[in-house]
Each structure stands twice: as C-alpha cells, then as structure tokens.
Design goal:
The chain is of the alpha/beta class. It has two domains: 145 residues, Nitrogenase molybdenum iron protein domain (Rossmann fold, 3-Layer(aba) Sandwich); 143 residues, Rossmann fold (3-Layer(aba) Sandwich), CATH 3.40.50. Helix 4 links the parallel strand 6 and strand 7. Helix 5 packs antiparallel against helix 6. It starts with 12 loop residues before the first strand and ends in a 6-residue tail after the last helix. 46% of the residues are buried.
C-alpha cells in the first residue's frame, strides 16, 4: 500500500469520540480457574510466589485498576488510586463501592497511607506509584508483609527491558489472573484483544514505507515523548507506522530536543487528551513555536487525539490500536 495518499485530513481529528463505542470487557463474573496454589509469577524478573489468592488488594492508576476490574476482582479490592483519569464507563458500576486510596491525583499516596489500608497485595508500576521519592517500593512493601506485582512496561526504570511488542501487557493480564486464580477469565480477555487487533491489522495489510509518527505529551522548551518500550510506540508499530524515537532504549523520554524532532520530520502526531493538559492546549503549544512550522505533521495539521488510557498498557490498548488505525487509514477502516 502506498501511504502517501492516506491523509486528506486537514482538521483536528478527535478520536476520543470512539470512547462511547467501546466493547465492555469487565462485566462478567470471573470464571473459576482449575489452577491450584502455590503459584509463582515473575515481576520485573523476580519470582513472586503466592500461597493463596490475595483478599485485600490495592491498584494504582487507571490502567491497573481496569485490569483488576476486567478480571472481575472488585470483591478482592480494598482501594484504588488514579492520577486524574477515571476508569472507563464500562467499569463504573464495579468501582463505585471501592474506596479511593487518596483523592489527591499527584503525587501518589505515601507508604504510610498505603499501609493504612491493611492490604495484602499491591498492583502498581514504577514512576506511577513505585518510586524512592514516594517511599513506596516492592521491597518496602515486602518488608511490611505485602506482596506486589509491577506493570511490566515500567520495569525499564529498574534496568529490566520489557518486550517491545504488546506481549508484555498480555503477560500482565495473564499473571494477575494467575495470582487471583482466574486464569480462564484472563485467557479469554487476552484472546479477545488479540483477535480484535489481528482483525484491524488484516484490514491494514503491509504499509510501505511506514509513516513517521511522533507522540507529544506536552512541553515547550523540549517535548515529553515516547521511547522504544512505551505503549504509544507499540500502538504505532501495531498499525504499520514508526515512532521517530522508537529506537531510544526507554519507555518515556522527558525532554526530547526540538532540533532532532525537526530533523526526523514526523508525518503525524499522536496527542493524548488529559485533565492536566488538554489536547487543544498541546496543539496550541506546537503551533506557537515558529521553529516547528516546517514539520510535516504541524504544517498539514495531522494530529490524532486519543484518550490518555489508550496509550497505557492495559485493557484499552486494543481500542487505541483500532482508533489510531481508523485515523490513519480511514478508507480501510470506515
């Protein structure tokens, strides 16, 4: 397929409208698993053994909470925390009776607050809630007798390189299913996601040459963007495009220089719409910097706006892939 004729878009494309059309994933009761305890999974390369399913779990941020809810584990949860974006509409009924760990959206709750919930399990991620600054780490939780599981994508923060494909997220869903004894339910969810993504990819076919994409998460002096292991990069790869920073050995890049971005000249820009900074504001920032005017995506206003949860490893990544594909190839996915 020749992709040079793909874009007839000259106005801002708001893909977030697709959110109202998502397929519910978490409304069924968990399926009984045939597995027996103890079970062992790896978290950032370290084996963690569970003698029984956790009964008082905490989840940190929207995507981890949605994985728990999609697996039907709300009755095992004693608290959850989000950094500003609520869980999807399909999970609102499940989450309504689970206490918020904190109403403060940033910084994440301290170790003292976490321990006050008397939990036996924490599902979190480095640079979400786990950090030396917050005082909450898997090691400190283990000292307090609390087991944890770390979102695989974030393991790059402690030197473990995750899979560059979507497999790391499938692994997380399957591992949480194994920990809680709902493996059959987890396998069903993963298979549904695989099938949906495969259907989208079959419609796209092979794209040659791949379009050059760039994720923009804000910034004026430099750009917050995505490296090799970030979900934003994986979404682009899944639809036959290439992140201009996809060779950088990291998940997130806090300050990418504009000179390099100008040199690499992205043909489209993915922007997430967030409560702390809207996509509209981010686009205004890009278009207010005269030195960026030569960038193809800015000159031709090729912006693709996605909900924040679409670019996180979790239950909405298949929706993100479909939305991105529809924006890039509207004639193939009407």
């Amino acid at each position: 397929m020749n992709n040079r004729n793909l874009f007839s878009i000259t106005l801002l494309l708001i893909v977030s409208l697709l959110m109202g059309c998502t397929t519910p994933k978490g409304i069924e009761s968990p399926t009984t698993s045939v597995s027996t305890y103890p079970v062992t999974v790896e978290s950032c390369g370290e084996p963690i053994t569970f003698d029984s399913a956790p009964k008082r779990a905490l989840s940190f941020d929207t995507n981890m909470t949605e994985i728990m809810l999609a697996l039907g584990l709300e009755d095992r949860m004693v608290g959850y925390w989000i950094s500003g974006v609520p869980v999807g509409n399909e999970y609102q009924e499940q989450v309504k009776n689970i206490p918020l760990i904190s109403t403060v959206t940033w910084p994440p709750p301290s170790l003292e607050v976490v321990l006050s919930f008397n939990s036996d399990f924490v599902f979190g991620a480095w640079n979400y809630n786990f950090s030396e600054e917050s005082g909450v780490t898997p090691e400190k939780l283990a000292t307090a007798g609390i087991k944890s599981y770390v979102l695989t994508e974030s393991c790059i923060a402690v030197g473990m390189k995750p899979d560059e494909s979507l497999e790391s997220t499938y692994t997380d869903i399957l591992n949480i299913g194994k920990i809680f004894g709902v493996e059959t339910r987890a396998e069903k969810l993963v298979n549904q996601m695989r099938e949906k993504i495969a259907t989208v990819q079959a419609k796209i076919g092979k794209v040659n040459p791949p379009l050059r994409g760039f994720y923009y998460g804000g910034g004026s002096d430099a750009a917050f963007t995505a490296g090799k292991y970030a979900m934003a990069t994986k979404l682009m790869s899944a639809v036959g495009t290439k992140n201009i920073f996809g060779d950088i050995e990291d998940d997130w890049i806090p300050a990418a220089g504009w000179e390099k971005i100008i040199e690499l000249d992205p043909e489209f820009i993915v922007i997430d719409d967030t409560p702390w900074e809207s996509a509209e504001q981010r686009i205004k920032t890009l278009e207010s910097l005269p030195k960026l005017a030569s960038i193809t995506a800015i000159r031709e206003k090729r912006y693709i706006v996605l909900p924040w949860t679409y670019i996180l490893p979790g239950m909405e990544m298949d929706e993100g892939i479909e939305a991105l594909a529809k924006a890039l190839y509207p004639e193939l996915l009407p």
